[in-house]
Each structure stands twice: as C-alpha cells, then as structure tokens.
Amino acid sequence: MNVTRDLFNEVMVPNYNPAAIIPVKGLGSRLWDQAGTEYIDFAGGIAVNVLGHCHPELVSALTEQGQKLWHLSNVLTNEPALRLAKKLTDATFGEKVYFANSGAEANEAALKLARRFALDHFGAQKDQIISFKQGFHGRTFFTVTVGGQTAYSDGFGPKPGAIEHADYNDLASFEALISDKTCAVMMEPLQGEGGIISPTIDFVKGVRALCDKHNALLIFDEVQSGVGRTGELYAYMGLGVVPDILTTAKALGGGFPIGAMLTTTEIAKHLKIGTHGSTYGGNPLGCAIAEKVLDIVNTPEVLNGVKHKEQLFRKGLEAINDQYHCFEEIRGKGLLLGAALNKNFTGRAKEFLVAAAEEHLMCLIAGANVVRFAPSLIIPDEDIQEGLVRFERAVAKVVGADVSFK
C-alpha cells in the first residue's frame, strides 16, 4: 500500500490537518520521515514523549510486559497497576489512584468525583464548577465545557450546566464567582493550550484559601504540567499549594496512552463500586510502561536536568529575540515554554511553526500568538543548541531578515 498524506484525506475524519510529512522512525529527540529526512523534536508529541522516542528502558518494559499480559479489565487487578499506584501515592499527596486512558478521561473522573462528593456531603444544590478562561481540560463534552475556550464547546447542543469561568491570575474575578454552591474548582497550575501562562503564587494560594472557605474541592489538571515537565515531579510541588484531586496523563506513559486521577482516601470513598469505570483503565501493559517512566523521571538527575535545560532554552530564545525582535516574552517553566509574539507578529504563530518544520525542527503553538516548546526532558544539550540554530533560521524567514547562515 502506498501510504501518503493524500491517503489521510481519503480515509480520516477531517477534524485534523496534519503536516505533509509522515514520520516513520524516532530515536531520542530525533525523528525521520518517509524520505529519510531527520528532524529535531521540540514538540514531544505535545508534552507526551517525556523520555524521547524509543527510550531503551521503555522499549524493554513494553516488550517484557507484552510477552506476559496485556489486558484483563477491572474485574481483576494486576501487579503493574498496583505497583504504579503505590509509586504515585508514595511520591505525591495522593492516597488513592484511579486509572484511565487519557487526560480527558482522568479529568472526567475528577469532575464526577467532585460532584458526587458534594452531593453526599452537602446536597444537590452544591453543584457549581468553576474553571478559568483559556483553560483546557479535554474534549469530552463535560471536560470541554469546563475548559475555558468556547470555540471547542460551541455547536454540539445544550452544554452541561452549573459551570462558570473566571479570569486566570485574577483573584477578584474568581472571588466574585465562588460561593457555598461551588463544589469544585478546576485549574491548570500552568496553563498550556491557553498560551503557557504561569500562575502567580498569590493567585494560586488565594484560590486554595477560597476553596477551603467555601468547602469546594480544588482540582489541579496536571495533564500537561505533570511528570517532571516543570522541573518538579508535579507542578503543585513548586507552588506551595496542595490540591484535593490531581489529574495526570500525557507524559505519564512516555507515549503509551494512560491517565490517572489522584486524591485522598476521604474523598475517594465517594466513588463507590459501580459509580465510575474504564474498560482499559489500569491495563497491565500501560501501567508497566508508566511505572518505568516514573522510575526514570522521579530522580534528582532528570528533574534538576530539566531546570538546567530550561535555562539553555531561555538564553537561546532570548539571543534570537535580541536579533529579530519578534517575541514579547519567554513564558513558562521547566520544559514547557512559550515564545509569546509581540504586537508586530500578532496571530502569526503558525507561520513560525511551518517555517521551523521547513528547517527540520518540530515545535508547537499555544493559540495564535505563542510558539510552544515541550521537548523530551532528557533532550541532549547539543540537540537543544542545534534545534535553536534551526529555529533561528525559521525566525529569520518569517521576520524576513536578510541574513546568511553558515
């Protein structure tokens, strides 16, 4: 079969518009397409490939478990799921774990749990959920409505009710919405899709205090910010605020689909037998791989390495900006960074992404005004430097500078 980009248009639902190239092989922070062209990967599968492509220890975990047991359903438990749950609870505030297959599923579970907790403790009137404008929490109808981007939730009929949105980093906006009717507040401790926006410490601590005042559960969506991405195992650890429920996915499987919701024993007991479930959630194959990811990432070497590599990125991007004056600021934390375009390049982030691909560099965007970088946490320093050289060529193209490169 001749597999080309044209085949996508023939056989796939048109909700995506992938690039023309089709990668066929990856190793570390490099990718190769059908023609054998090599690319440096600053996209990381949208913050998923936390240890790069085909990390040998993940390949070993996959093949070893793949010869033992793939799937059981939750009629039975399994050793990899129990080991992974123990490691997650040992490493975080969480005492209980629910496994799913994606970030949206983990968030769906968190929201259902919060509603059930409030119903059991306070009654049906306590049902309001507050989240934040420009937030992103998944594409199920519940999670996309909780997300703060109406373009993703409009046009599908009546939306789930009792959901309100405040302005991120604006405590007064949030305080105006929260009341004793609020059952849960869902927020990203670093907004990803919304533009790589870090919270101020005062804001996140104020949200926590108001949740406590009104007996509302605080849910941290760490689908993108978790598993070492910010230089902490989870972003909450660097903010001095502990949520009641945390969701994690993306990087947790290093490329294999898995998600998880973590919470306390007291809160968890409200998801009684039969109240929620997942056929594939907690399957042995996914959990065995995620266990290995956690073993590798949750080490001082990797987490400190993230902070070092962040500085390499920041210095490199700032040097590019010194020459081309196209960025307003470099945002984010760890290896979830955004180059926010200034007013002269408003709405043109995709042009930078396309130009980067032409220079054999994969990156991302976060909205129309931010170029996003979410590479492997163990990307070699030399790959960062070479990737930034390629990105500079892309910037030169977009800016239209007449510069010759070696």
TrEMBL record:
EC number: 2.6.1.11
Principal location: cytoplasm
Associated pathway: Amino-acid biosynthesis; L-arginine biosynthesis; N(2)-acetyl-L-ornithine from L-glutamate: step 4/4
InterPro entries noted in UniProt: Ac/SucOrn_transaminase_bac (IPR017652), AcOrn/SuccOrn_fam (IPR004636), Aminotrans_3 (IPR005814), Aminotrans_3_PPA_site (IPR049704), Class-III_PLP-dep_AT (IPR050103), PyrdxlP-dep_Trfase (IPR015424), PyrdxlP-dep_Trfase_major (IPR015421), PyrdxlP-dep_Trfase_small (IPR015422)
Positions bound to N(2)-acetyl-L-ornithine: R139, S278
A single Gene Ontology CC term: cytoplasm
Example GO BP: L-arginine biosynthetic process
Keywords assigned by UniProt, alphabetized: Amino-acid biosynthesis, Aminotransferase, Arginine biosynthesis, Cytoplasm, Pyridoxal phosphate, Transferase
Catalytically driven reaction(s): N(2)-acetyl-L-ornithine + 2-oxoglutarate = N-acetyl-L-glutamate 5-semialdehyde + L-glutamate
Residues binding pyridoxal 5'-phosphate: G103, A104, F136, D221, E222, V223, Q224, T279
Location relative to the cell: Cytoplasm
Family: Belongs to the class-III pyridoxal-phosphate-dependent aminotransferase family. ArgD subfamily.
Protein name per Swiss-Prot or TrEMBL: Acetylornithine aminotransferase
UniProt lineage: Bacteria, Pseudomonadati, Pseudomonadota, Gammaproteobacteria, Alteromonadales
